[in-house]
TrEMBL record:
The chain crosses the membrane at residues 354-375. TPR repeats lie at residues 79-112, 119-152, 159-192. This is histidine kinase. Its EC number is 2.7.13.3.
């Protein structure tokens, strides 16, 4: 469906078809007049008269008008010429050029306060935005034009703005609002005047979209007759298009075709790209509806040809608007500078006049003023010297204060860092004392009690063996606890460095198994060791040793009597993964999730009531991560736990060769 928007020049509507007698009269005046001001407005009138009959001629007169207006520095005439050129481009279908000239006209009219011209410019720019579906921006500009028309009591301008707003609501599919605005516009206009043409056609198109095609035909027939009477070809194009669409909506394509054919012929005659595109699209639909696909394809091709031209103009329009915004901002700055210069000149003129009035009095006082000036100058020099010295003193004082302030800020930052460090050390101290008081004191007290029983002979000789095993296990646990405690303290106080070196994993595991064998025998546990001799780590040996001791010790601690502990290693790429698996009590999911979460781990008692500090796993995680490794665990309640950790492997040519041979063997298989 078609949306009709009315282009205006100032607030008066002029027939679209140039009258030959009028043109001849204006050309005669143009040739005979010697008044340049009259000539520029005659050129504007001629440009307007050729809008719908000859785009190139309209453009020629418009360009001549703008050149002459600039020479005369006639801003109102220049704005009128720009607006006329914009309308010519708009009817031709070149929206980018149209908008460019509309904005130039608008800028001039804003600067000179041309209220009537502003209304026309806002209306025309709004039409360009509406053609690109920028509906909200279009309505905003129409409302500005509407306000100006109301303020100046311009009935025709008000009606044109109302009609255009109605077309915007038609595009938004709000037909009730659309027909309301258009009918209000028609009420303000003489139904037999050329000004009402656009509103008649708009009403017809809206009624077609509402399904009331009989009303649509009535309005379009009235518009067609009036357009032919006043000689407005563009309005005749709109009326023909509306009649064809109304008959098509009434399912009468045979009635629509003659109007559609005359529509496309007239649109091509006035060379309006957008109208040709719309007319070709309408014929394509009609021929498709009647089953004449050959003609349907013909007009589809014509539609696409003109659609590409209109689309290219739309893209250029956006670029033109951006360029204008930049140019407008630059012009505003230039206007401000010009106003400032004008004010300065005015002030200079006023001062010169005042000087002339009081010249006589000034001459009488010259001698006195000279003396006063001399004395004042001497005093001013003394004051300036004093002020300069004061400024120097103040500057030196300010620099001293700034230096003092900076020094105090540095001291405050240092104190804050020291405070944070002391708070951390204090926390370490509290944790250390807590562990000593609760976890280390208990085993030592038990050890003391056991030794007292033995020294008093209260333990029979035949039962001394189990007591000695318990004593050894308690002593070993206490030593490990103390070892973990000291290491943890050093870590917290940043006193531990990593020293990676070639580390024999199998040897470390063997040493720890021998060390922990008494505890394992006490619980009747079996070790299953699957550590490859070639698996050599590149890590801190002492840290790896502590990790193995803690993980194997924990496996013993939480294993049930008669269970098994399995230690194995696997190499993947440049890393070795070690696992320690037990058949103990396992862990609940929530306990497992919190093991390496970064929070403090609470100690749990072992299956033989063994105690711990809760620091072992923290140390393991810290040492492994410092050696560029990772640690994790898998566990299920009642099914035991498996702790894994991965560390970098020591590069070995033999191992690399073995891995390649294994990979080739897998591929061959």
């Amino acid at each position: 469906m078609k949306h009709i928007l009315l282009l205006v020049l100032l607030l008066a509507f002029y027939p679209a078809l140039a009258n030959h007698d009028k043109i001849s009269e204006l050309k005669t005046k143009l040739e005979t007049t010697h008044d340049a001001e009259e000539k520029v407005f005659l050129l504007c009138e001629l440009s307007k008269l050729y809008w719908n009959s000859s785009f190139s001629t309209s453009l020629k007169y418009g360009n001549q008008a703008q050149v002459l207006a600039r020479e005369l520095n006639n801003q109102k005439a220049l704005a009128l010429a720009y607006n006329n050129i914009g309308v010519a481009y708009d009817i031709y279908g070149n929206y980018s050029e149209a908008v460019s000239y509309y904005y130039r006209s608008l800028r001039i009219r804003e600067s000179i306060g041309d209220t009537a011209g502003l209304s026309a410019s806002y209306n025309n720019i709004a039409i360009a935005f509406a053609s690109q579906n920028e509906l909200e921006k279009s309505i905003e500009l129409y409302n500005k034009s509407l306000e100006i028309s109301r303020a100046t009591h311009d009935t025709i301008g008000l009606a044109l703005s109302l009609s255009n707003i109605g077309s915007i609501y038609q595009q938004k599919k709000d037909y009730d609002q659309a027909i309301s605005y258009v009918l209000r516009a028609l009420q303000l206009l003489d139904p037999n005047s050329s000004v009402s043409l656009i509103s008649m056609n708009s009403a017809g198109f809206i009624y077609s979209e509402m399904g009331e095609w009989e009303k649509a035909l009535s309005y379009h027939h009235r518009a067609l007759n009036l357009a032919r009477k006043v000689g407005s070809k563009i309005d005749e194009v709109h009326a023909l298009c509306g009649l064809a669409e109304a008959y098509m909506a009434a399912k009468q394509p045979e009635m629509a075709l003659p109007y559609a054919h005359r529509n496309v012929e007239l649109a091509q005659e006035i060379n309006s790209k957008n109208e040709v595109k719309i007319a070709a699209e309408l014929l394509n639909k009609l021929y498709t509806q009647v089953g004449d696909f050959k003609n349907a394809h013909k007009y589809l091709t014509l539609q696409k040809e003109y659609a590409d031209s209109v689309q290219a103009a739309a893209v250029k329009m956006q670029l033109t608007e951006l360029a204008f915004k930049h140019e407008n901002e630059k012009a505003m700055q230039e206007n401000l500078l010009l106003k400032a210069q004008t004010n300065l000149q005015q002030q200079m003129i006023e001062r010169r006049n005042a000087a002339q009035v009081f010249t006589g009095a000034m001459l009488l006082l010259v001698g006195v003023l000279a003396v006063v000036f001399f004395l004042g100058r001497r005093r001013m020099h003394r004051l300036n010297d004093l002020l300069t010295q004061k400024n120097i003193d103040i500057l030196e004082h300010s620099e001293a204060l700034a230096a003092k302030k900076e020094q105090l800020a540095l001291q405050a930052n240092l104190l804050l860092e020291q405070k944070e460090e002391l708070e951390k050390l204090n926390s370490v101290k509290d944790k250390l004392f807590s562990v000593i008081a609760h976890d280390l004191k208990g085993p030592l007290t038990s050890l003391q009690g056991l030794l007292q029983l033995i020294s008093k002979g209260a333990v029979p000789q035949d039962k001394l063996g189990p007591f000695m095993a318990s004593l050894e296990a308690s002593q070993q646990n206490s030593l490990w606890l103390l070892d973990n405690l000291l290491l943890w303290s050093r870590v917290q106080m940043r006193g531990l460095t990593v020293k990676p070196e070639e580390t024999n994993l199998a040897l470390l595991v063997e040493q720890n198994l021998r060390l922990l064998e008494p505890q394992a025998k006490f619980k009747q546990l079996q070790f299953a060791c699957q550590i490859a001799d070639v698996h050599t780590l590149y890590a801190d040996k002492e840290m790896v040793n502590l990790v193995l001791r803690n993980l194997i010790g924990n496996a013993i601690k939480f294993s049930k009597k008669g269970g098994e502990i399995r230690i194995r290693s696997e190499r993947h790429g440049g890393c070795v993964t070690i696992s320690v698996k037990d058949t103990g009590i396992g862990m609940a999911p929530e306990k497992l999730a919190s093991l390496f979460s970064g929070g403090s781990n609470s100690s749990s008692k072992g299956t033989a009531d063994e105690r711990g500090s809760g620091l072992g796993l923290q140390l393991c995680q810290y040492f492994i991560e410092r050696n560029r490794g990772s640690i994790w665990a898998e566990s299920e309640t009642g099914q035991g736990s498996t702790f894994f950790f991965r560390l970098p492997a020591m590069p070995s040519l033999q191992e690399d060769a073995n891995e390649v041979m294994e990979a080739e063997a897998v591929e061959l298989a």
